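**User:** My hope is that you can spare some time for a protein that puzzles me. I have put the entry right below:
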Amino acid sequence: MNCTSLDQQLCHVALENSPLFVGIYNPDTHKFVYLNKTGLKMFELDNLEQANDFFLEGLRNNESLIQWELQVSEHLKTSAEFCIDDSFTSPSGTKFWGRIRVKLLQEPDTAKGHWLVNLSDIQSEKHTQIQFSEGEARFEALFMHAAMGIVMMDKSSKIVLTNRYANALFGYETNELLGMPIETLLPTALSETHRQHTEKYLHKPQIRPMGIGLDLKARKKDGTLFSVEISLSFFEQNGNQYFISFINDITYKKKIEMEMILKNQEIKKLNESLEQEVMNRTNALVETLKDLEESKQELELALSKEKELGELKSRFVAMASHEFRTPLTAILSSASLIAKYPKTEEQEKREKHLHRIKSAVSNLTDILEEFLSVGKLEEGKIEAHLALVEIPELVNDTLADVSNLLKKNQNLRFEHSGENEFITDKSLLRKIIINLCSNAIKFSGESSCITIRTEKSSSHFVLSVQDEGIGISEEDQKHLFDRFFRGVNVTNIQGTGLGLHIVAKYTELLGGKVSISSKLNQGTTVTVQLDLA
């Protein structure tokens, strides 16, 4: 069969100018006898001979020519048309989606016939289908597989959609909740109240959490109530409004909160017990210090027998006696004076002496802490425990603790540069800051400023404390980190001579070093540098 037997003009109009691939195929010879110019262009071909060579292996990507012919032949025995969507490839390798249609062109007076083959490009249609399928998959992932309960209702408060998590949360089967009123999921006693709130929300919907500050409850299918958090949202589609509830079961969270409350109560009781224990031990310490004062002469005589340790131990006893005597004297004198004010209207005077006693006891505790710290450092009982530290937070908290030591009109100024976090021992760094700030306050006059600076880079952390105090001579600077050493210009100022020694030891534990810059009557700057590389 060929076009010579047909009307030439009709053939040209109907076939050659068709926007579709149009071909006439002979299944007996396995070749096209005609292929229009659209078909040739679609597969980047120049003529019919070239087309038959190209289609020799088959028209479609996923099957041979023989398989395709058998499939079409079998289908055309029972149907007027064979149609299928498939992927096709041009000689240059370009792939596209097409819809191929095959009809039988029966020849008169014979059982044989040719096939009319049409192929249309459905690339954009297929792309839309893929996008739609992907959209459905995303909706399935986001909605049906969400790890929270999602319930959608219409304007009549009827449930129109639920996800799997919501069904499991409330104990219902798939689609069992559809059509039910939203009050089905609420405590029975709150149904009417909820209806009123729902009417107000439907009148003026907004995206917001539900029941802020309230203990919200929901009801399962078996009537069990459980604690929930609910967020509300809404949208409009085809002129209809829909409302969505996002529901989280917070039963476990509530349990944890209650356990935390009970734990806090236990901690509070423990703190009260510890405070009493500290008070008892402080009283015992006062008695011990009294005994130490009485036996000072005997202790000095015994220590003198050891020449190498004698000097050090003698300095310890002398320092201890000096530092302990001042607060002990304040305690004893204030305790005696309290007895002289028995009248109710003299409470203010009694409180003044009680404050002196508390202050003296606190001073004794600090002194003892310094002595104990030196002992632990010498015995190697103090180790660094590294953790992530937030620098501004640690410094500000520490400065708040030492602010009660400030003299009249003194002030603390803090400056930080660089990164805010690094890994170190928070407790040791805090003690270093406290010691340096305490010294700066102690050796500076009223109305002075103490400046604390911190800098964090990738390779190091630097802490400096600068005061406007009495300064340190060059000779004394050589011995500042020795135990119990005190400069010649501070003999009238209370202190143990252990502060900088402890700072140096703590800094060494953190892998750093301490340096001092000072001039007499021009202030002092102590710098701690920790290498982080």
Notes: The longest strand covers residues 225-237. Residues 482 and 501 are 6 Å apart (CA to CA). The two ends are 88 Å apart (CA to CA).
